[in-house]
Amino acid sequence: MTIILRWQIVERCVLTVLALAASVLPASSQTAPAQSNLNPTALPTDITPQIFSGERSLMSRELKYSIWKKLPEKLWFQSYTEISQRLETNPQFLSRDDKPDYVFRALPNTTVGYNFLPNTGVYCNYFVLKDVFARFPQLGRPTLQSLSFGVQHTHTFGEKTAAQVKLEARELWQAQDIQQFDFLPNINLTRQVTPHLTLIGATTLQLRGGDYFVAPTREIDPFYSVQAIYSRGLWNFVASDTFVTNFRHPPFSNPIPQHGNVSMIASFEVNHPIHPRYLPGLYAFVRAEPVWNWDSGGTPGLSGFDFRLFSGIRIAVFKPPLNQYNEQMRKNIREYEKRRSKTQPQGPTGGLPTENQNSPAQTSSKDSTSSSAPVDSTKAPDSM
Questions:
Q1: Which domains occur in the chain, in start order?
Q2: Which of the two ends of the chain, N or C, has the fewest CB atoms closer than 10 A to its terminal CB?
Q3: Which of 94, 84, 85, 91 lies closest to 136 in space, CA to CA?
């Protein structure tokens, strides 16, 4: 209880400082147009996607190797395209008198990056979210788009734990005549508990404003997410939960929408490749997604309980930054040779065996060097 109270005090202090900083920004940055055409069914986890479901790349290993060898070693990309249909019990997010609907969704999401240092790089992300509603077609207009640029740094702790820090700047086209800009600092911690179980914790602070690189002037939204991925054979079981607090009014005078709220979005998914041999990155999935809203004052679009039941396919294509894996493999080989040199027998001159004696360590290192890149680069993206 003491820890929770201290955290709430720190959170309030941070919000107060950010609100004071926003108050000195130009007045034009705080003038908001009338709210119109906002799609209430676009959740915070939809417009700030954190996709990690253990999918493999769409391409076969042989095709990946032939393509990757022709691309820069430090270049990386990942693309996820999700085509789904869902039953949604409360798409308008009303506190009462909710009406269900059937929704078709297309969500392509692509990121391209370049690592200028072994574990540090820049990237660009673009995604489109298009919902088509059978009963309330007005909710699907206009099409939501996002374009962002960012820098990220990855640090590993041993062989099973990795931390990633990101700073992203994003322009969000969420509705007609409304400009949204976000700063998105993010910290992500991944732990490989067993070969079959991966745990992920992430926190994102969404600082939203109305002008380019001017934020926060509309709202402050901290995200807290946890996720567990369990793999058995080709089956992946994914469970996640995200808690979001939207601070709008107060402290800001003209946010969009006007009222703040609190949301919790849970997700439970099962996926499996459709054809593991020829299309290993084409997955079929079923996902249940309950959504809770509160502290919204009954505001339409921010209230009530919604349950979503998805089914669809997801296509995954990606290339990792191979310089990270190649450097790790070289490090492993050096450590292996060092350990073997301490334990192997001495040669005729009292030193280590010479090269023409074909020592086991040297033979192993040569074999590992010649085969390390394809083996390591294949395993690494499968676990991303």
A1: 41-318 (2.40.160.40), 320-341+359-384 (no CATH)
A2: N
A3: 91
